[in-house]
């Protein structure tokens, strides 16, 4: 298998992202081969280690439309060990988080909890709750209702408001 992958990398069919991680290169007409997206790398790590991976902090806020800033440092939470992956000169940090945070099957639940935790108790207001209500689907709201108890106590009333139909 190693030889096949090595040949595919040399032929340009695959590109080595990091040790043990590969992707199919996307070729831009003018720029040539593009680096893989951070979310794609996180998904590949999730598949390789068998542990869930969700955006952390500012990245979660951006993913849910609560912030327009794109964080320069990419950090994801995982139930696996803390580690750093280098993709070229770009650093992607995987930080360990409690497995309790990843109980829900739907990815939206830990993402919403992470985003609210990043904002903090004082900065969560009715506008934030309305934005989150619009950002998630009815199915995600139903899943969120099931896992309100997995969130910190201060956050549970906010999650109830988000999850109501």
- In helices, the fraction of residues equals 40-55%
Q: Number of DSSP helices?
A: 7
How would the global form be characterised?
elongated
Assess the beta-strand content as a share of residues. Answer: 15-25%
| Spatial gap, N to C terminus | 50 Å
Q: List the domain count as a whole number.
A: 2
Radius of gyration: 18 Å
Largest beta sheet: strand ordering: 5-6-8-7
Mean pLDDT metric: 87
Structural class: alpha+beta
Poorly predicted parts: none
Quick one: biggest sheet? 4 strands, mixed
- Tell me the series of helices and strands, N- to C-terminal: HEEEEHEHEEEHHHH
What's the count of strands?
8
Explain this structure to me?
The chain is an alpha+beta fold and 165 residues long. Strand 7 (83-87) and strand 8 form a beta hairpin. It has seven helices and eight strands; from the N terminus they run αββββαβαβββαααα. It folds into two domains: 1-36, no CATH class; 37-163, no CATH class. The strands form three sheets. It has a four-stranded mixed beta sheet with strand order 5-6-8-7, with helices on both faces. A two-stranded antiparallel ribbon has the order 1-2. Helix 5 (126-135) crosses helix 7 and helix 6 (138-146) packs antiparallel against helix 7 (153-163).
